[in-house]
Amino acid sequence: MRKLALLLCFAAWGAWGPLAWAQALSWETIRPGLQYARQDVDIEGTTSQHRLHWLRLDLAQPDLHLALSPQVCAGLQMPALDRPPIVASMNASFFSKEFFTRGHTVSQGQVWRGNYRLADSPVLACTTGRKCQALHQAPAQESPTWANAAAGVQSLIQSGRARSDADDAQCGAFCTTTHPRSAVGLDASGQTMVWVAAEGRQKQVAGLALAPLARLMQAQGVAEAINFDGGGSTALHVLGQARTHRPDNEPQARAIANAWVLSTQADLDWAAICPKPPASQP
Fold first, then answer.
1. Which end of the chain is more exposed for a tag (fewer CB within 10 A), N or C?
2. pLDDT tens across 17-38, in order?
3. What value does the mean pLDDT take over residues 117-129?
């Protein structure tokens, strides 16, 4: 029976080398309802690693509030969010050079302007009632019930099924290249949200293709997941500190369109968090 179980395990994971075995993470409690873990996965035959940072949130925790930074803050750098009452933050949407976001984007019930590629960008949407869902087929328009929503590129896990290496091959270099990655997922109950930020583009830390990232998330109980902006945008901050290290070729924080934010205050003063420079005088 033991041999059969091992064979079934290998068949389920596929030929994935050192990443095939799920690691039990050591979770640090940041505050009630919020836990953090770092995961280092050695790459067989090298001195390099994959390094992932995990944040696990109980969506029912009454004193933690999930938000997407608003459009008025587009162009912010993640260190701007390292202040109370913000507890944690992670970059979110893909964006253009004008900081227009890809896919449906909603912050505190306000729909972003200038969105592009709405139809083919899966959406993570949350209502004011703390109900979140991953919409792998993007709707034609935003729902009036959405309080916060952001879109990604490529689904990682749908109904418990992680994307495969074959799925990545059909997608091309964007999916198969080992980039730094950011992702958000939900467990089967929809009550637990998981953020993941994978480092990469470092001398001894390689990024991930999408399929291995999906399998790692699946191994941690994630049933639905969407890939968000990665590369130099990838950043996870907890309690005022960056937990992720920057790529070697991009040591400074990148200006991004928006970020997922957890705070102990329901209504943040966004004008104070990301003030705009004064208009130039004529």
1. C
2. 444 446 789 999 999 999 999 9
3. 96
pLDDT digits 0-9 by tens, 210-228: 999 999 999 999 999 999 9
Distance set, CA 89 to CA 17, 140, 144, 184 (Å): 32, 28, 25, 12
DSSP strand pairing (192-198 vs 49-58) = antiparallel
Residue ranges per structural domain of the chain: 25-99+152-265
Tell me the three-class secondary structure of the chain, residue by residue: CHHHHHHHHHHHHCCCHHHCCCCCCCCEEEECCEEEEEEEEECCCCCCEEEEEEEEEECCCCCCEEEECCHHHCCEEHHHHCCCCEEEEEECCCECCCCCEECCCEECCEECCCCECCCCCCEEEEECCCCEEEECCCCCCCCCCEEEEEECCCEEEECCEECCHHHHHHHCHHHHCCECEEEEEEECCCCEEEEEEECCCCCCECCECHHHHHHHHHHCCEEEEEEECCHHHCCEEECCEECCCCCCCCCCCCEECCEEEEECCCCCCHHHHCCCCCCCCC
The more confidently predicted of residues 279 and 177 is 177
| CB contact at 8 A, 31 and 65 | no
Residue with tokens 């109370």: 84
pLDDT tens across 33-76, in order? Answer: 999 999 999 999 999 999 999 999 999 999 999 999 999 999 99
What is the length of the chain? 282
Average pLDDT over residues 86-91: 98
